[in-house]
C-alpha cells in the first residue's frame, strides 16, 4: 500500500491521555459514550465494494466511497478520531482519514474477519473495543453512542442488522469476530448478548438497491445524499441528451 500507517506492531497498554482528548472532540456536538471505546471499522476498497448496488443506477465506486465516508464521520463524531481504527486497502480513503486523526491499518487481503482481527490487534490492551461495519450511511454519532452505552463494556454483546441474521456492531474486551452470513447466530453462539435496539439508523446496513432505498427513507449522511443526487442529475442529463 502506498500510504503510511498511523501505528505499527501489536497493541500497547491503554493510556488515558489520547482517550480524553478524543472524548473532548466527540463532545463538541453531543455526549460521548460513558466508556472509552475503541472502534474498528473494516472497509473494503471502494473500487471493489458494493457490486450488488450497480442495478440502482448509481456509479458504484462513488456510492461505496460516500457510504464509507458517512459511516466514518458518524463514528468519529461518537468517539473521536483517535479512538477509530480504519482497516482498509483503499489508499484514498486511508489518506483522507489518516489526515483527520483516525488510525489506519492495512487490510491483509484475506477476508473480512482477518481484516477485523488486524484492527483489533492494534487496539490498546484492556480497552473496551467494538467492531462496526462500514456500510451504514444512515448512522449518526448519537445512535452509536446510545448503542455503546446500552451494551456497556462489562460483557460481550452485539447488535444485529434489521434483517436479524447479520451483525452491524460487535463489542467486548476480547473476542473473535465471526462476521459474514449468519453472523448473528455465530456471535450468539460465542456467548455474546444480542441487543435488539430500537436504532434503525445503526441497524440499516446497505448491500443492495432495496436496503439502499430503506436507508434513504431513514435519512442518509451528506456524502451519500450528494452521490445519489449527482446520479439523479446524470440520469436526467442522459435522458435529455
TrEMBL record:
The keyword Thylakoid does not apply. InterPro entries: CofC, MobA-like_NTP_Trfase, Nucleotide-diphossugar_trans. GO terms for molecular function: GTP binding; phospholactate guanylyltransferase activity. Residues 1-28 are annotated as: Disordered. It comes from the Bacteria. Keywords: GTP-binding, Nucleotide-binding, Nucleotidyltransferase, Transferase. It holds the Pfam family NTP_transf_3. Residues 67-180 form the MobA-like NTP transferase domain. PANTHER family: 2-PHOSPHO-L-LACTATE GUANYLYLTRANSFERASE (PTHR40392). NCBIfam families: F420_cofC. This is 2-phospho-L-lactate guanylyltransferase.
